[in-house]
Specification:
It is globular and about 50 Å long. The chain is of the alpha+beta class and 232 residues long. The strands form three sheets. Strands 4-11-6-9 form a four-stranded antiparallel sheet.
Amino acid sequence: PRPVIQSYAAVNEYLARLNAGFLASPRAPEFVLLNAASIDGRYPSTLDNLAWLELLGRYQPAGFSGDYLALHKALDPAPVHSAKILERTLTWGRDIELDPTSAGPVWAEIDLQVQPLGRLIDFLFRPPEVDLSVQAGGVWNTYSLLIPLARSGFLLSPVVESPAAFALLYRADQSHPLAPDVSRISIDAGPDGKRFYRPQIGVRLYRLSVPPRPAPEMRSEEHTSELQSLRH
């Protein structure tokens, strides 16, 4: 098994890198079953965030198994390249618009620094929650954001909340209603969070180049519409 068996338990960069390193090692499994659903209201791609890059570079869709996408180790693993497209400092509740002119998945690194008093609170109590609001497909949705994982980076766009949506990432340059592109984001917190963190929020966005992979064959009626979109 991977070092951190449950994805939701990889709550900081060190633990996330353990799992990502496992998938990049000779001990990596031939198959991985991926659900890609959210838990505890978190942004879905922050669950095992760094492992997603290894899955996109080293695996390919092999079909569906129940509620999971089956990924098979690719014969020709290729790195997922990134190119910085934006670096900005913003404050609570301010929007950032993503460039709609260039297609492809977007990786985000969001850096929030703890106030001096916040370090004591962090030692004694659970840090206050931070919210990530994203506009995708014309609709705003709000998720909780674990700051240690946000700093190390996660897939921001498109919004991936299902196995079929993850499979669509291997098309890389095409948007789809199952995995809508993010057009705007905003980061906010309640009064406790604003006292805990510094008001300056560093945001870095990168365009990813995902190696294209073949789409899976149709396996069940449950995924018929998703798979038809993959095949065409």
